[in-house]
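Quick one: Ankyrin from Anaeromyces robustus, structure tokens please.
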Amino acid sequence: MTKDNDYYYEKLYNALSVEKGDFKTIKLLLDYTEENNINLIMNDNSNKMNLLYYASESNNIELAMLLTEYSKKHIIILNIRDKYPISQCAFEKNYIEMIILLLDYINKNNITINIKIGYYYSLYNNEKKKRIGHEEYPLSYTVLKDNIEIVKLLIDYANKYNIFMNVNDHENKNNEYKKIFFITIILKWLNY
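--- reply ---
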């Protein structure tokens, strides 16, 4: 990262944290970096805050649109923590408009995200809790929140990119995602 980049990224971070997502300040700073030919490294996860992560977490559609437009102009593929550009929170809280906006961004940039069903389960050994298993994927959150619209979008995405989603993957005693639950959701979706 250049010194200039550090300075302006810090200013953007301060606009996010101090002003609670002050869009005008963020836009002014992004415009200034463009006018002065300063390219921000927007995916540097060593910084205190990833801008797209903040937008996704806080359901700030205006900021997400600004960032995706900025990334398009500067040929930057946005990501969060070296993964895909949608935070788990967007799925957890059913931020439908944010998810649609970012799925559209993902499709336009040919980004493949991991939407498989996953979960964490815990083992107890000598009173220590150890978390093992898979990450929680977008489809997991969406199914748990019973959001048929997003399930449909994710299934369409899986079909487009030939992603196989095996709902029978997780057969253990502590399975949080029961097969019957998935079957119910899929049947609801088919009748949608």
